[in-house]
Records
---
Amino acid sequence: QVQLVESGGGLVQPGGSLRLSCAASEFIFSLSGMSWYRQAPGKERDLVPAITGDGLLTDYAESVKGRYTISKDNEKNTLYLQMNALKPEDTAVYYCKTDFGQWGQGTQVTVSS
């Protein structure tokens, strides 16, 4: 069974940066596109960025364009999300997801002074 484990969340001040990782186990990682979602308290889970299996194509929500970068390392079976210029409204639990429907457990990102 595929397991996705996110890490890298935490508390950061506005304007700061964080890098999230999502490690996949027992999975043909290179064949699957992947995505990051986030869910703030009382809100729906929203797609943030997505990337194709080969890592060549990406798509971003308007709210994070120019600040977030999604990437994947198919040799390490790991998905990344580099988040820069963080804002308080970026506060949420961040989840990674495969195109086959598997989800990670989530990692909390809190942006606050």
---
Amino acid sequence: QVQLVESGGGLVQPGASLRLSCAASGFTFSVYTMNWVRQAPGTELEWISSLNSGGTDPKYADSVKGRFTISRDNAKFTVYFQMRKLKPEDTAVYYCMKGETRGPGTQVTVSS
């Protein structure tokens, strides 16, 4: 059974940084592309980043490119999302996804 559990969210001021983690279990983590998506209140899910199985080909949405970095540790079955220079518009619930499966999410709130 696929399980994804996100952590690391919180309330921060604009310009701050956060690192999200997603612990995976129940599947062969090292062979799958992993994604981060987010959902702000009243909006649809927004894809923001993906990383291939080997961690060599990160992709980013324009909204986060240059500020956020995706990485993974296949030995720890974990994917990370380093977020820098956070803006109020980054406020959302952040989810990691494998295919169509996502975890419960972690709330990120950026506010002064």
---
Amino acid sequence: VQLLESGGGLVQAGGSLRLSCAPSGSSFNSGVVAWFRQAPGKEREFVAFINWADSTTRYADSVRGRFTISKDEAKNTIYLQMNSLKAEDTAVYYCNHRGYWGQGTQDAVSS
């Protein structure tokens, strides 16, 4: 499974970004799709996941209330809406599904 992420960029603190993740040549169909992130010099950490079948979601404490993970079944795409961004949200964001990783998309938040 090849996962394609997009939507990263540079934004000022307090701003918003929306990330997208879609499988190339396949579909999610079922299971969990998750977002992780890795900041410079730090380990990769969990951000959020959504269960494709029932839309159950979970969030890391650090992003709860600011980030929203959602799905568009028609587009076979997962989104991560990131609001009220902080400098500490700067990282490469990765999509994960069934053990497969995307290439990552860089987000940078300037304070």
---
Amino acid sequence: VQLVDSGGGLVEPGGSLRLSCAASGFTFGSYDMMWVRQAPGKGPEWVSTISNGGHSTYYAASVKGRFTISRDNAKNTLYLQMNSLKPDDTAVYYCATHGSWGQGTQVTVSL
């Protein structure tokens, strides 16, 4: 299993970013996928999950209405569209499935 996260960066409050996770080494379309984040000095926080077919999505209360998870099974890629970003969204974001995590991508929300 290999998960490669990308798309992070520095953005001002209210801005947007789209994260990507390129998956390989397993049958991507057979697995639910999730995003997890870890802020400095804090433990991991679940952000969102999408079912294997993409028909069901779930969000933490802290991001619901601002973040959208999606996937392209033909491209073996998971996405997280993040809008209306807040300083509290600053964290390293990881895609994950069945015990495997990507390397993470840093998102910093600051003026």
